[in-house]
Specification:
By secondary structure, the protein is of the alpha/beta class. It is built from six helices and seven strands; from the N terminus they run ααββαββαβααββ. The chain has helices at residues 8-19, 21-35, 73-82, 119-129, 149-164, 174-179, and strands at 42-46, 62-66, 86-90, 104-110, 130-141, 185-192, 202-209. A seven-stranded mixed β-sheet has the order 3-2-1-4-5-7-6. GO terms for molecular function: methyltransferase activity. Pfam families: Methyltransf_11 (PF08241). Keywords: Methyltransferase, Transferase.
Amino acid sequence: MCVQNASTLSLVNAYFFQILQGYMHYQYRMIKKNLFEDLPDTIVELGPGVGSNLRYFKPGTTLLAVEPNEGMHSLLKKNSEKYSIKTELMNLSAEKLPFPDSSVDAVVCSLVLCSVVEPDQVLKEIRRVLKPGGRFVFLEHVAAEHGSWIYWIQRIVFRPWLWFFEGCHLTRDTHQTLRSANFSNLKIEERSLPTVFLPIRPHVYGIAIK
């Protein structure tokens, strides 16, 4: 999420995602359980929102949460306590991370690269802060195949979706952006999820190694 100050819309979104926690777990549980297993005790997460990933981290994990949307902060803190995660909140954007070069073991983000202002810069920063061999774990919705009925829907609802979800782009080619980010190793998979939210059915997920 990429807004700098709390607003009515930010708070609406925060409670919207809080209400959706159970549904999101149902949709993503198998992918996330596989992606997030064996993560280190300290993790950097970009755009954790209200904490949809917290249930998949080991209790006692230290989470360095880069979340510029202040509307999410209160629920993120509450959910961190629920799942026994030690969350350190950083009200910063993902385009400029506050960590030294080669200092981080793992960076996580899910449903975030759709909303950042400069996804190429975010991936550059992730590579900068990761230690050699460090992991970037991602799960993102992406543009549908051009000419498909899902892509047609994405184009129709693009502007209202962008406004309501505070900068969420439905038609970003995040798959190609990840492939162009110069990680030493990239394992990426594609899947169409049967979610009721039709515009975000196409997904990519995987692990990139510095």
